[in-house]
Design brief:
alpha/beta; 434 Repressor (Amino-terminal Domain); Rossmann fold; 3 domains; six-stranded parallel β-sheet; four-stranded parallel β-sheet
């Protein structure tokens, strides 16, 4: 008769300590343990210390979800974001994450590839399942403003980079101010007009910069050349620069971001046109690398970190029931470097 194999018992599942276990260990009521776990100040210091010691000995962890449900807050925010690749979006996201961490909030990020009603509604649904208290949307406004694209309600929402057509707090860089500063700088140097390499047609930021550039030229009685459309990349800037290099009258160019400005300067150099002796170039963003371009790039500095800070503060104000500002524009500043000079 074959020997029967030894019986292997599965290890018993370890039961997590409960609030009652802590109460018994500390010699207090379950209600007292609950008060300590939720941070209420009505418990005497000596009792609180006894309860905390019991929690540590037993390995008790307060149920954060239950506390949140009871308080009606989860201390968590969501971010819906298009285009993770742009410098400005990443800096703004970093600032929001940093502010959230400092304030004791967790953050859930949902990047989207397309701005359809389904994708946006799906992102809202996912964040609702994650039990967030509010949502920041970092999206190009022309996408948001499509008539068929509606934002779901039910949660506090703050929109970044939008045209302010929603009844929501909207935070953005003062795009118009920045474009005006760039254009006026070149005109004040003595250039008769300023050519423009704009961003994509669907971009709110690009449209604001383009409109302000045109208004500034008209206000100074200058000719308004046809802008050249790029896609924010250095490659598109170089293609625009190839066109501009072939126009002898071009002496000043305002590119809608630093990467396109880099491409423009590359093309001008390749065509034998010196920057800034033959053509002055101004960008927009003030990327960390802009000071290391050759020549160092004159540009418009956007305070992306401040945009993120203001957005988080506005969202928390909405979560807490306050009435935040309807729209908040963060100012820009002109940073003059070696790529701009008076014309010959």
């Amino acid at each position: 008769m074959a020997a029967s194999p030894e019986r292997m018992d599965a290890p018993a599942h370890r039961r997590e300590p409960s609030i009652l276990d802590v109460a018994r260990e500390a010699g207090v009521s379950a209600q007292t343990v609950s008060r300590v776990a939720t941070g209420k100040d009505v418990v005497r210091a000596a009792t609180r210390e006894r309860v905390v010691d019991a929690m540590r000995r037993l390995g008790y962890r307060p149920n954060g979800a239950a506390r949140a449900l009871k308080a009606g807050r989860y201390r968590s925010i969501g971010v819906i974001m298009f285009s993770l690749s742009t410098y400005g979006n990443m800096r703004t996201l970093e600032a929001i994450a940093s502010e959230a961490t400092a304030a004791g909030y967790s953050l859930t990020l949902i990047p989207l590839d397309s701005a359809t009603q389904g994708s946006v509604s799906g992102a809202f649904a996912r964040l609702s399942e994650e039990s967030v208290d509010g949502i920041v949307i970092i999206i190009e406004a022309h996408r948001l403003n499509e008539s068929e694209l509606a934002l779901p309600s039910g949660l506090p929402v703050v929109v970044l980079d939008s045209s302010a057509e929603y009844d929501l707090p909207v935070i953005d860089t003062d795009q118009a101010q920045g474009a005006r500063l760039a254009t006026e700088h070149l005109l004040e140097l003595g250039h008769r007009t300023v050519w423009h390499v704009r961003g994509p047609e669907e971009s709110f930021s690009a449209q604001r910069r383009r409109d302000s550039w045109e208004r500034t030229l008209r206000a100074h009685g200058a000719e308004v050349p046809e802008p050249i459309v790029g896609d924010w990349s250095a490659e598109s800037g170089r293609a625009a620069g190839d066109v501009l290099a072939g126009i002898p009258d071009v002496t000043a160019v305002f590119a809608a971001n630093d990467q396109m400005a880099l491409g423009v300067m590359h093309a001008l150099h390749a065509a034998g046109r010196s920057v800034p002796a033959d053509v002055s170039v101004v960008g927009f963003d003030d990327m960390p690398e802009s000071a290391s371009f050759w020549p160092a790039l004159t540009t418009i500095r956007q305070h992306f970190h401040q945009v993120g800070v203001v957005a988080f503060q506005a969202l928390v104000a909405s979560i807490e029931g306050a009435e935040p500002e309807r729209a908040d524009l963060v100012p820009t500043e002109l940073v003059v470097r070696a790529s701009s000079a008076p014309p010959r």
